[in-house]
Specification:
The complex is a heterodimer. By secondary structure, chain A is mostly beta strands. Chain A has strands spanning 3-7, 10-12, 18-25, 34-39, 45-51, 58-60, 68-73, 78-83, 92-99, 104-107, 111-115. In chain A, strands 2, 4, 5, 6, 9, 10 and 11 form a seven-stranded mixed sheet that branches. A four-stranded antiparallel sheet of chain A has the order 1-3-8-7, with no helix packed on it. Chain B has strands spanning 4-7, 10-13, 19-29, 34-39, 46-50, 54-55, 63-76, 86-92, 98-100, 104-108. In chain B, the strands form two sheets. In chain B, strands 2, 4, 5, 6, 8, 9 and 10 form a seven-stranded mixed sheet that branches. In chain B, a hairpin with a 6-residue loop joins strand 4 (34-39) and strand 5 (46-50). The chains are: A mainly beta, B mainly beta. Chains A and B meet through strand 5 and strand 10 of A and strand 5, strand 8 and strand 9 of B.
């Protein structure tokens, strides 16, 4: 069965960096586009970044552009999000999600990132 | 950027009742690119409806989606205890790939 497992979250100071990982299994990872989506505590969902199956096409939300970098390693069935210059407003649960057509059909359980001094 | 506005913010209903959730877009959205998700506390969102009206795998037929243009609706025909949750609509557009509505909470009355 399809599984997405995020890791790498934690507490980081403002201005710091963190790298999130998402391990995929149960499907041919290299065939699918992937995204990161976040949810601040008690708030709604915010799309963060997208990467095509080959990694050749990448999009970012304006709120993270220039600070976050999405990447993938199809040989390792893994998706990554490098987060630099973190701000308090980046505090959220970060989900990796598989894109189906224009929606997200499978989500991981999420990893919590807390940015605080 | 297309903004999705969901209403009501909270819907208080009893099990067995019908729930009607609205999602209104600031600009026309292709029906192919409108989805609905359910999220329970402490869990990841689950895809319910894609393409405005197609149920995702394993979703009971009490869930249905409809609408076009700027007005979309998620209907739960008879609420089961496990349906009390927060529901989000989501659209895909070329200028800003994905946006979500702010959510509607369906709570037990």
């Amino acid at each position: 069965q399809v599984q997405l497992v995020e890791s790498g979250g934690g507490l980081v100071k403002p201005g710091g960096s963190l790298r999130l990982s998402c391990a995929a299994s149960g499907f041919t990872f290299s065939d699918y586009y992937m995204s990161w989506i976040r949810q601040a505590p008690g708030k709604g969902l915010e799309w963060v970044s997208y990467i095509s199956s080959s990694g050749s096409t990448i999009y970012y939300a304006d709120s993270v552009k220039g600070r976050f970098t999405i990447s993938r390693d199809n040989a390792k069935n893994s998706l990554y999000l490098q987060m630099n210059s973190l701000r308090a407003e980046d505090t959220a649960v970060y989900y990796c999600a598989r894109r189906w057509v224009s929606e997200f059909d499978y989500w991981g359980q999420g990893t919590l990132v807390t940015v605080s001094s | 950027e297309i903004v999705l506005t969901q209403s009501p913010g909270t819907l208080s209903l009893s099990p067995g009742e019908r729930a009607t959730l609205s999602c209104r877009a600031s600009q026309s959205v292709s029906s192919s690119y409108l989805a609905w998700y359910q999220q329970k506390p402490g869990q990841a969102p689950r895809l319910l409806i894609y393409g405005a009206s197609s149920r995702a795998t394993g979703i009971p037929d009490r869930f249905s989606g409809s609408g076009s243009g700027t007005d979309f609706t998620l209907t739960i025909s008879r609420l089961e205890p496990e349906d009390f949750a927060v529901y989000y609509c989501q659209q895909y557009g070329s200028s800003r790939p994905w946006t979500f509505g702010q959510g509607t909470k369906v709570e037990i009355k």
